[in-house]
Write a structure and sequence with these properties.
- 48% of the residues lie in helices and 15% in strands.
- The chain contains twelve helices and ten strands.
- The chain is α/β, with parallel strands linked by helices.
- Helix 9 packs parallel to helix 10.
- The protein has two domains: 217 residues, Phosphoenolpyruvate-binding domains (TIM Barrel, Alpha-Beta Barrel); 44 residues, no CATH class.
- The strands form two sheets. Strands 6-5-4-3-2-1-8-7 form an eight-stranded parallel sheet.
- Strand 2, helix 2 and strand 3 form a beta-alpha-beta unit.
- The chain is globular, with a radius of gyration of 20 Å.
Length: 267
Amino acid sequence: MRSLLFVPGNRPDRFAKALAAGADTVIIDLEDAVGPEDKGLAREHITAFAGEHPQATFMVRVNGAQTAWFDDDLTWCQSLSAVAGVVLPKAESASQVAEAAHTGKPVMPIIESARGVLAMSELAKQAHVQRLSFGYLDLMLELGTTPDTGAARTVLDQVRVQLLVQSAACGLAAPIDGVHPDFRDTTGLQHLAQHVRNMGFGGMLCIHPDQVAVINGVFQPDAAQLAWAQQVVDAANNTRQAAFQLDGQMIDAPVIARARRLLAQSA
């Protein structure tokens, strides 16, 4: 799961286009992208689309647990087989995740508040949570952090480290980083994607189809990496030694495991 593309739930004309954009996952949004007057109508649009496209699957970002729409969103998600997972915004407690898990769907909490950061260890332990994601735009607003500054990178990277550690400790898939809001800035998106990939993140949320190819390209191992990984794995399979030398590099269990992971990512 490298790229997760948001599409507004009140724009049914965009659903099929989003699913055809090449993203690994499409998230139909009932939260920020949909005004209060359109929440129910958005659910109706999604239900109609699912009926017309029985092979389509997607995740849904429900409204937050603090809102009046939360319970209705979850009941509706549970009833619709096309919903492959629930994206839980502003996740701040284990009980919120447990409520979302009653749908029987996988839950992806978004860590996007100070309370969410403090509750991260409990969120990561909950059943039905397969991975965490990061909503850093909301977090920066709450903390008073100035976007696009070195100071912001310092603050956000500290939270990213916690996401990585909690995910690894709880056996979750690699976390997903937040959106790059300027969809025209492909250079900035590429740099950010490379940064969080090198930290250990598995992918990114995105808000525009043009961002999908950039993100997929960054999080897909390149030919040189795959060639190295295949060479390491082949050598490991052909030797009985726990550690050996290959082209001047010492190869042992962690290096072999990394090589196998790279090959698995390209499969």
